[in-house]
Amino acid sequence: MDALKKNILAGTIAPVYLFYGPESYLKEEFADMIKTAIFPSESDANCNTIILYGPDLTPGELVSKASEYPMFTPKQLIIVRQFEKIKKPSTRELQKQHEEKFSLYIKNPAEFTVLVLDADQIDKKEIEKAPFSTLKEYRHDFPAIKSPELFASNRAKASGWIFDPDALKAFTAYIQPSAREMCQEIEKIIMYASARGPEKRITAPDVLDCVGISRSYNVFELEKALAERSLRLCSGISLMIMDQEGQKEGLGNIVRFLTTFYIRLWKLSLPEVKQLPPAEIAKILGMYGKQEYFVKNYLAYTRLFSLQDAERAIAALRETDAALKGLLPYPDEKYLLLRLMQKLLG
């Protein structure tokens, strides 16, 4: 993705792009970068950008559109949304004709057209079939974010800002791990923090203030209560978080944070991992940059939680997550929370 961005910003534009995967925000962002690169002004971009939808046209019809000369500028941009649902002609013979027409176009695309094909997740088997197989050299995958900490840290750095370690921890605990939500929240936090002065540093209070989290009742206080193995305190803090954020959303944030917490403890249960330098441990735990500071906290926690504690907790958290997603029945979120805490500390 970095190489793709570098090429676009340098003005090296391919005639065709296939963007696929669930991160629609990033795909839209790259499409906008391409638009800025090929058009001298916003008015030119508006006049010569065509948005089409896969379910409304066949591969052959798309080729016809791409082969039409632009009216006002040397190039035109055609963006096809939902390309994975492109319409199939009515018969197999027609399908073959359209696929051949599309394949010939991709081998020799029009010099005046930039074609951006935006698809959702494509199955591994499907991507090797027409029309996707024809686009092998133009594919760019936008998978779900696997490391929210790294994504958030890099995104802030791209704007010249740095997260403090506890700020990054707070951010990834409370923000859903989707590019759209994370990017929008980082932009909001940077605007807020800019009023503090020239220092481009995001602090934990910046995150807590912008996201609207109480400084008294949050997942960090919950983590401390877990270390004290206090069922009453854990339940009380959790219920306060849920009252602040909404029952279901609050419990969802708690489950996500504690799942990361216990998975890290589980990884640290291996003796060979504990003996590694802090920087290596941080990588194994999925902690980046200044988050290495928290490695010592997790090493201390391993003296309080056994491997069996971590495994039991992860199983209980998965069960709670399944219930929140509607896969298991439950009377209400408070009941679900209290049952979870009993399993974590029972």
The number of helical runs is: 17
Radius of gyration over C-alpha positions, nearest whole angstrom? 25 Å
Largest beta sheet: strand ordering:
2-3-4-1-5
Strand content: 5-15%
- What multimeric state do the chains show? single chain
Shape verdict: elongated
Q: Architecture of the largest domain, CATH level 2?
A: Up-down Bundle
Summed over residues and divided by their number, the pLDDT gives a mean of: 90
Uncertain spans: none
Q: Largest sheet, if any?
A: 5 strands, parallel
Helix content: 55-70%
Query: Total strand count, please?
Result: 7
Structural class, judged by helices and strands?
alpha/beta
CATH class of the largest domain: Mainly Alpha
Order of helices and strands: HEHHEHEHEEHEHHEHHHHHHHHH
- The span between the termini is 45 Å
CATH topology of the largest domain: Zinc Finger, Delta Prime, domain 3
Domain unit count: 2
Can you walk me through this structure?
The protein is α/β, with parallel strands linked by helices and 346 residues long. It has 2 domains: 140 residues, 3-Layer(aba) Sandwich (Rossmann fold), CATH 3.40.50; 196 residues, Zinc Finger, Delta Prime, domain 3. The chain is 56% helix and 9% strand. The protein has 17 helices and 7 strands. The strands form 2 sheets. Strands 2-3-4-1-5 form a 5-stranded parallel sheet. A two-stranded parallel sheet has the order 6-7. Strand 3, helix 5 and strand 4 form a beta-alpha-beta unit. Helix 11 runs antiparallel to helix 17. The longest helix has 22 residues. It is elongated. The mean pLDDT is 90.
